[in-house]
Amino acid sequence: MLPPSPPAFFGYVKVELLARYPHRWGWRVFKDEGDYVVLSSEPLFPTAEAAWRDGRQVLVMLEQGETVKGLRAMMQIT
User: Tens digit of pLDDT per residue, the chain (78 long)?
Assistant: First the structure.
């Protein structure tokens, strides 16, 4: 049996407060190579926890081989 292959994507999620009132949180997925933003949330979230949950889901999908282009289409990001 072959060992599992490593993820095709290496990155991390950052959650940031993007609007003070009302509080709105957003996530950004960064790629480790060069620390540049690959995707960011649209729309914003009312809590940091909600933004974190959503951002982690996107990161997991990228790690499982989903493409950025595919995720943008799925999320309807232009």
Answer: 666 666 678 889 999 999 888 889 999 999 887 778 999 998 899 999 999 999 999 999 998 888 888 887 777 654
Six token digits for residue 28: 């950004």
Give the C-alpha separation, 22 to 30, whole Å: 26
Residue ranges of domains in the chain: 15-75
Rounded-to-integer distance, Cα 72 and Cα 49, Å:
22
- Distance of alpha carbon 12 from alpha carbon 31, whole angstroms: 7
Alpha-carbon gap, residue 46 to 32, rounded angstroms: 27
